[in-house]
Design brief:
This protein has 862 residues and is of the alpha+beta class. It is built from 35 helices and 20 strands. Among the domains are: 94 residues, no CATH class; 97 residues, no CATH class; 240 residues, no CATH class; 69 residues, no CATH class. A hairpin with a 2-residue loop joins strand 15 and strand 16.
């Protein structure tokens, strides 16, 4: 086609116009236009419905001839235009619109190149932009990179303002900014900015499309191994830690139209692995049966994968949500063990080496960890440590104080935040009578300090809420209880030395596993000092004869910490030491020693962040299983954007706000080089840790008794404890179901002081909120149904109108799968599956918005 004719298309008339149309779409369109006297492009644009004439009655021969060649005649005497002609006309009109937009754009761009200073000075915006760009150019490349996003943003706005809204264009950087703003600020905030700065941000429709196309859709019980593999390949990662935890959710069934299944029932397990898309049905009767016979999920279980930082990365990658699903807390330790085995093998097939798993200190997790690691437990029919990928460490000599075998397929940590709160809760327990020799360990010592008029809060930093025994997950109080100011007050009183030592051990737990600034040597020393303290304390209780009228061996449990807490202390210290050995022997990179990431805090973080995504006008901070899956998709997308802009130096990066508590995380992060790890003398550190524990207990009657019984010393003490563990708490699992274990190990009390199936509060902020900063919201996660879905009485109706409910006589075939076919008043109706859930819901489940009340509510139900 002649370019000159194309450029002048809007000036063509008569024969030139018809020649252009003939060249572009053929003679039939030309004939139709000629018959209607449409002789120019402008005339065609004003009336593009040129086929309407065929619906009129006309007997002219030329008209009948054109209609015969252009249309198909139906039996009723009606005519329809041939598809080819319709397509040709659409193509012609689209072409003309493109040319019209091009001319419009060119007219904007056809600006006088010799702009006068008077014109620029007349418009302050132009003047300031010119001055700003001149300053950037004079300062060089560095300032250009610093202001890269702002330049891109200004260019986007100015370019889009010269176009029609249908032709607005946005760079990938602007799209990332828009998605981040939408997730962090919510729909109302996003729309407020977009509407008041025209051309700056994409529409909500485009954002929805971007989120849908992100390939981050999360389905219940789906393990996203393929997405995990792609994520690791993009970041060039190989090693990772896994974590698992649960939180309380609103018990409610919702229908997911994308997967065509019902979400909110407890997911069944197959060898410990949840069955994906189990609750799928097209029968309303089946759904009724489920509602009547199956309780709703009270907990949400999640699996997170924390990548190990590579040598080329400056920051620790954000954790990856592997799977999430509703549960009813009936899984056994054997189910957990098989689930970990499944995750390990699936990751290994994708060249991802899971180093180990971390959970809260719940008893069933402790059992699973002991069975898998062989810590006074055994799987005779399942020798996992003989796996070809198992770590094997070579010890120079036998360590009598080290109870793990030399071959380990996986390492395990009980979450240190939970361990710290367990340590605190035992102090606050009304059933415990903790004693260290002639010293008592009592919360009364803390109350006396708080109530003492001699001291103020400035002196000790405590409040009575910090020693509230009902607030079992208050980690911030653990930090306050380990302050140097409080230690100084306790040290000055000879009667509070037992409480002082107990709280010093709590501080060592925090230093060993939670504090990011702690070096690996200090971590190892602190962890094993707590171990030896507990071993000495336990041995003294076993050997001590207490003067009490109600004495029995089992009563001794009240003088010591709980069994899960003690086992967690031992397991964590052993696995910390074991983790160092493969690094020394070049089986693992030194980045594996970022111990604070080897925890279940990634799970806690995503729980907190998901609650923060409730709308600004909503009082609901809790969520259903369905809500979590939807919000988690956006959190995952935000994490990807943040990590890309933090690590990709080829782009002008976005800057994200950082909570003031985490502003110095990167500077304070203790990193270990391979050479520093190689120089670690494990035996010397362990010896120092033992003597530190001895020095702390010096002056108490404990050491005298142990010396009299010939168990004072690193070797005899460890051999005594080993004998006790081996004789009283050895576990075996021969079958597919884990047998019930004896709860009387060492006559230590069960962990009845706290329950760890909670959601772990906002005060449990020991690990950085790896996803996002505090206080964002997203209004589109809120709907009226969340607060009003119980406002109607459901009755056998004779109504024929169903306003407000999705009940129809007919539905389109492509959405029929989202409806139940049911009989209402002898008529066949289609009821939307979410409407059916609403009809079958008898009562509304609620959870308190207050963290403490929510935790207590969950614990009562568990």
């Amino acid at each position: 086609m002649d370019n000159t004719m194309t450029d002048n298309v809007f000036s063509l008339k008569n024969d030139e116009f018809y020649g252009f149309i003939h060249t572009l779409v053929g003679q039939q369109i030309v004939d139709i236009l000629k018959f209607q006297s449409i002789t120019s492009t402008q005339s065609l644009i004003r009336y593009p419905n040129i086929f309407d004439i065929f619906n009129m009655k006309c007997s002219e021969p030329d008209f009948l001839s054109i209609r015969k060649t252009s249309c198909l005649e139906l039996e009723g005497g009606q005519f329809i235009v041939k598809v080819g002609l319709i397509n040709n006309l659409n193509y012609l009109l689209d072409f003309l619109k493109q040319q019209q937009n091009k001319i419009s754009e060119d007219s904007y761009m056809d600006v006088d190149s010799n702009l006068t200073f008077d014109f620029i000075n007349k418009h302050p915006l132009l003047k300031n932009l010119v001055l700003w760009y001149q300053r950037i150019e004079s300062e060089g490349v560095t300032n250009t990179d610093k202001n890269g996003f702002l330049i891109d943003f200004i260019n986007t706005v100015t370019n889009n303002l010269t176009k029609s809204s249908n032709h607005f264009r946005y760079s990938d950087k602007i799209k990332d900014f828009a998605l981040s703003l939408y997730i962090l600020g919510g729909k109302l905030t996003y729309e407020f900015i977009r509407l008041n700065i025209p051309g700056s941000l994409p529409s909500l429709t485009m954002l929805t499309t971007l989120i849908s196309n992100s390939n981050l859709k999360i389905s219940e019980a789906e393990f996203r191994f393929d997405q995990l593999q792609k994520h690791f390949e993009n970041l060039n990662l190989q090693y990772a830690f896994g974590s698992e935890d649960a939180t309380g959710v609103i018990k409610k069934i919702k229908y997911d139209s994308i997967t065509n299944k019902f979400i909110g029932f407890p997911t069944p397990l197959d060898h410990g692995v949840p069955i994906k898309e189990y609750y799928h049905t097209d029968s309303l009767d089946t759904l009724k049966l489920w509602f009547n016979s199956i309780d709703k999920s009270s907990l949400l279980n999640v699996h997170m994968i924390q990548p190990v930082q590579s040598t080329t990365q400056n920051t620790i990658p954000s954790p990856f949500l592997l799977s999430a699903y509703g549960i009813d807390n009936t899984a056994t330790a054997n189910d957990i063990l098989q689930r970990w085995w499944y995750i390990f093998n699936q990751c290994l097939q994708r060249n991802i080496r899971i180093i180990g798993f971390a959970t809260d200190a719940d008893a069933k997790y402790v059992r699973a960890m002991r069975l898998m690691s062989g810590f006074f437990a055994s799987l005779p029919n399942f020798p996992v440590h003989q796996h070809q990928q198992a770590f094997t460490v070579k010890l120079k000599s036998r360590w009598p104080w080290f109870f793990l075998r030399e071959q380990q397929l996986l390492l395990f940590f009980q979450d240190a935040t939970h361990l710290a709160t367990k340590w605190r809760n035992r102090l606050l327990s009304s059933t415990a009578e903790l004693r260290l020799g002639d010293q008592s360990i009592s919360t009364n010592h803390l109350y006396s300090i708080i109530d003492n008029g001699k001291f103020t809060k400035i002196d000790h930093g405590l409040t009575k809420s910090d020693v509230n025994p009902k607030d079992r997950q208050n980690f911030s109080s653990c930090v306050k209880l380990t302050s140097d100011d409080l230690f100084k007050i306790l040290k000055d009183n000879v009667d509070t030395q037992g409480t002082l030592i107990y709280l010093q051990m709590l501080k060592m737990i925090i230093m060993a596993y939670i504090d990011k600034k702690t070096t690996i040597v200090a971590r190892l020393r602190s962890a094993w000092c707590v171990v030896f303290f507990c071993r000495i304390w336990l041995t003294w209780i076993k050997l001590k004869t207490f003067n009490t009228t109600q004495f029995s061996e089992k009563n001794k449990s009240r003088y010591f910490i709980t069994r899960p807490a003690y086992l967690s202390v031992e397991i964590n210290a052993h696995n910390l030491l074991y983790l160092i050995l493969p690094v020394q022997q070049k089986q693992l990179p030194p980045q594996s020693l970022h111990i604070h990431t080897f925890s279940s805090q990634a799970c806690e973080s995503i729980f907190r962040n998901t609650r923060a995504l409730s709308g600004v006008y909503s009082t609901i901070v809790n969520f259903t299983v369905h809500d979590f899956l939807r919000r988690a998709q956006r959190l995952s997308l935000l994490n990807d954007i943040k990590f890309k802009h933090l690590n990709d130096r080829s782009v002008n990066n976005l800057v994200f706000p950082v909570h003031y508590k985490h502003r110095h995380d990167h500077q304070s992060l203790a990193t270990q080089s391979q050479r520093e790890v190689d120089l670690i003398d494990v035996e010397q550190i362990i010896t120092e840790a033992y003597h530190e524990a001895i020095d702390m207990l010096n002056g108490l009657e404990i050491l005298n008794l142990l010396n009299d019984k010939n168990v004072l010393g690193l070797k005899p003490l460890s051999e005594y404890v080993f004998k006790q563990l081996n004789s009283n708490s050895k576990m075996y699992d021969y079958s597919s179901q884990l047998s019930q274990m004896d709860d009387g190990e060492f006559e230590i009390a069960d962990d009845d002081d706290d329950d760890d199936d909670d959601d772990n509060d906002d005060d449990n902020r020991t690990a950085a909120d790896l996803n996002i900063n505090d206080g964002f919201s997203s209004n589109d996660d809120y709907d009226d149904e969340d607060e009003q879905d119980d406002t109607r009485n459901l009755i056998n109706t004779t109504r024929e109108e169903f306003s407000g409910m999705k009940v129809f006589n007919m539905v389109q075939p492509h959405i029929e799968h989202s409806y139940f076919k049911a009989t209402i008043n002898d008529d066949i109706k289609y009821i939307h599956k979410q409407t059916a859930c609403w009809l079958l819901t008898g009562e509304k489940s609620k959870m308190s918005n207050d963290r403490l009340l929510r935790v207590q509510q969950i614990n009562k139900k568990s």
